[in-house]
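Quick check before the chapter quiz. The format below is the same one you will see on the exam, so make sure you can read both the input and the output lines.
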Amino acid sequence: MSSTWLVVGLGNPGPDYSRNRHNIGHMVVEELARRMGVTFRTHKSRALVAEGRLGIGGPKLVLAKPLTFMNLSGGPAAALGKFFDIPAANTIAIHDEIDIDFNTIRLKVGGGEGGHNGLRDISRTLGTKDYYRVRVGVGRPPGRADAASHVLKDFTSVERRELPLLIDEAADATELLITAGLIDAQQKFHPAK
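Here is the expected output.
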């Protein structure tokens, strides 16, 4: 198995979207880049890319923030996988998840996209659903409010107080997924029932 991992943080480009719930994936890969001491640069794949190692002698990570809108995340993900020769089995998509409560993280490999158009596009362009997902809970909107509008709004002031911890935990979960595997990461980050 390749020791290089592609970690794609999903979101929308530009400052108007930067603090939206939909951009939690961008926020998490920014935290991973900060921890690794690497900076993002523009790549021909239509993404901002940062490369580095997870610890001394650890696996190589290619961190990506697509410069396309969320619904077209697959093009940059597939192009980066091809450019760096990283298989779908070593690809991680970090994304917002409305079906999970705010401040909760879930990890999985494969399965459906749950109506998430960014994931749907990645599955389509990779030709498989068998890639890892770090699902960062942003919760459902109250009442009958529109889910699409909910994810395109900034976090509330209450959520913003807890957001740094959520981003930190999602980065921890991503690192553990890479270094220890899915089952160990799930055992640590999925709450006991």
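If your answer matched, good. The chain has one domain: 4-189.
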